[in-house]
Specification:
This protein is mostly beta strands.
Length: about 250
């Protein structure tokens, strides 16, 4: 199989047809663009508001909103007093990646864009632009939107691994693959897996650090080609011939 991520093309070996199995999973490598933001806590907003054992896999809906941002799931329940405030009143999207004042009183500032590697790992995701050494106060808190295009030449299963402190979600083709919301220590999100057809697929990772001390984000992914239906049909026919041959040998020996 062959896939393209960002500006990097990667070719992966595929098992021979006689192996009668799907291709092995191979690491996806390449580049992403990162749009960086700094958030100053204020009012009754979502940053530096509470701490520190809120682990939620249901915090956002399964599809992106009208402006291409995660939509808060109003059915999600966090710790007492931790209701999310920075929500667009029209679209229901989280405002942590939108420059300006959020509905909770936090101030979001765009600080630039850079190219970053895939896989990605940064255990000091502090301002500015993921390269700092602290957060909170006048430094603010780091949020980021990292995105790229994945081009597959064949139907494939993409498996996504990710961990973060605090909120992080990955969407492929506008659909949620995996993620973890809330203010918490570095925690792995559930393993995400999605079957994608040949062609181009947009990937967006959203990240938000919302409390002092730590800030971390890491993710990686693999792709495995899926055998075409015709291949499986031939395999099934092959198994049938094996069974017929076995029965024939049994009859001849009787």
């Amino acid at each position: 199989m062959r896939f393209i991520l960002g500006s990097t093309t990667f070719a992966a070996a595929v098992l021979a047809a006689s192996a009668a199995s799907a291709a092995p999973a191979v690491p996806i490598t390449g580049t992403l663009q990162a749009d960086w933001f700094t958030v100053q806590a204020g009012g009754s907003g979502d940053f530096q508001a509470y701490c520190c054992s809120d682990f939620r896999t249901d915090m956002v809906l399964d599809t992106l909103g009208d402006n291409g941002l995660p939509v808060f799931n109003t059915a999600s329940v966090g710790p007492a007093g931790s209701d999310i405030k920075g929500i667009d009143s029209v679209t229901g999207e989280l405002q942590w990646w939108t420059p300006g004042l959020t509905n909770g009183g936090d101030t979001v500032t765009a600080t630039g864009s850079t190219s970053v590697p895939f896989p990605f790992a940064d255990t000091s995701m502090f301002p500015g632009n993921g390269d700092g050494s602290s957060n909170g106060g006048q430094v603010g808190f780091q949020t980021a939107k990292l995105f790229t295009n994945l081009i597959l030449d064949t139907k494939s299963v993409v498996t996504w691994s990710m961990s973060a402190d605090d909120d992080a979600w990955v969407f492929i083709g506008g659909k949620l693959v995996t993620g973890l919301g809330g203010v918490h220590k570095v925690t792995a999100s559930p393993l995400g897996q999605v079957t994608l057809g040949a062609g181009q697929h947009d990937i967006i990772v959203f990240f938000a650090d919302r409390h002092t001390v730590a800030s971390s984000l890491s993710f990686s992914a693999t792709a495995a080609a899926v055998p075409e239906p015709a291949t499986w049909a031939m395999l099934i026919a092959g198994f049938g011939l094996v069974g017929f041959a076995a029965r024939r040998r049994g009859l001849l020996a009787a």
